[in-house]
Amino acid sequence: MKGNYIASVTTLFKNNFNQKEIPKWIEKYPYGDWPIYLLTVNDGSKIKFLNQITANYRKDIGISSNMRKNAIMVSITNLSILKDMYHDKTFFNNKRVIKESIVNHEIQVMSAFINSKQFIKATVLFIKLLPNTNFSDLSKRFLMTLYRSLY
Predict the structure, then answer these.
(1) HSE-up of residue 32 (Cα within 13 Å, Cβ side)
(2) Per-residue CA distances from 107 to 30, 55, 128, 145 (Å)
(3) Domain range for residue 24?
(4) How many helices (H) and strands (E) does the chain have?
(5) pTM for this predicted structure
(6) Measured between alpha carbons, how far is 35 from 53 in angstroms, rounded to an integer?
(7) Contact 146, 114 (CB under 8 A)
(8) Structure letter (DSSP) for residue 54
(9) What is the secondary structure of 109-123 as a DSSP string?
(10) How many structural domains comprise the chain?
(11) Are 15 and 36 in contact (CB under 8 A)?
(12) Domain-embedded: residue 3
């Protein structure tokens, strides 16, 4: 839930979805791989890693390829996916972890706003995040990202 670290071309999982209903909110996103992975392991199932090359991506093809060029869009989309998961009863047992991930993704959005010189949006999000985060850590992140974006 911290992020989508699995390349979709390399995934393989047992199809247990005929016993589960896939949430309708997944359909509104330009990619469904990450929510499907989270739905698949939501019941405690395990993910295994093979340390070998299993596929190659075609560069700059597809919806998510174009979207990945815009860090703000990716961050906002992932944040929206997490918020839908948080409100979905299927993920009830993972609400605490999802809430933590939402805060972390909001911090990523704040940083993306700073990096794209949208300082007012970044500052508004910084203020919104203050009650849910450690003031010192959030301030350091905000100021360091701001410093890097200016120099």
Answers:
(1) 10
(2) 22, 32, 10, 11
(3) 8-150
(4) 6, 0
(5) 0.79
(6) 24
(7) yes
(8) -
(9) HHHHHHHTT-HHHHH
(10) 1
(11) no
(12) no
